[in-house]
Each structure stands twice: as structure tokens, then as C-alpha cells.
Amino acid sequence: MQSWEMREWFADYLDACNRHDLDAIRSFVAPSVRRAHLPGGADAWVADAADLFHGFPDWQWRRIQLLVEDDRIAVHLRAGGTHLGPFRSIPPTRRHVNVAQFAMYRVTGGRIAEFTGTGESELIAQLQG
Length: 129
Hints:
The chain is of the alpha+beta class. Helices cover about 35% and strands about 35% of the residues.
């Protein structure tokens, strides 16, 4: 993909995420996606998204900056939502969280093949007060 196509591809992916459309999200992820420090595979990716959306039914991402180089995307996002359901064994707190996220994706054949990025420590810290 050309740089402009990668930008459009990521905008479509982010739109699927913000709609909480798990089937659409799965279509952007390679079946054997590798994730740094997390279980690999599309099933684990979608399960983690479902867990997030269950805990934060209003969760949304906003792109701050996006860089493309060859088959890689680097992105800075702001994300947030209200904790209305259990998340990572933490009962609902009704707190609104707002976190910075940084991610690197390698895209092959129109799907995420590799991912690394910031973890959930800032999110968990905000829930635990």
C-alpha cells in the first residue's frame, strides 16, 4: 500500500474500533497477529476489544498523530470512556478515564501482522484512583 492508502486504511480501522464492531475489527487483523507481551492471534485481539467495550461501553479513540513508513504505522491516540462494567477484574467505578496511547503496527496484505504499544497501566491507575 502507498502511504496515503495506509492512512485511509487506519482511518477505516479506527472507525470500526469506535463503532465497537468486533467483526469489522477482526477483518483488519491477521489470524496469526503477533502482539508484544500479549497473547497472539486474532481471537485474543477481538476478545481483548470485547472486554474493553464491555467495561467501557462509550470507549472512543481519537487520532492525534500518524506516521507511515513502508509497511509500518506509528500512531499517537487519545482514548477514553466511562467504566460502567467489569474490566480486568475491577468492578465498575463509574469513573471516566482519558489515556494517551502509542502504537506501532506492521500491516501485511491489508491486515495487522504485528503490534506493539503502550499497555493498560495508565488506564488501571485511573480506575484505582
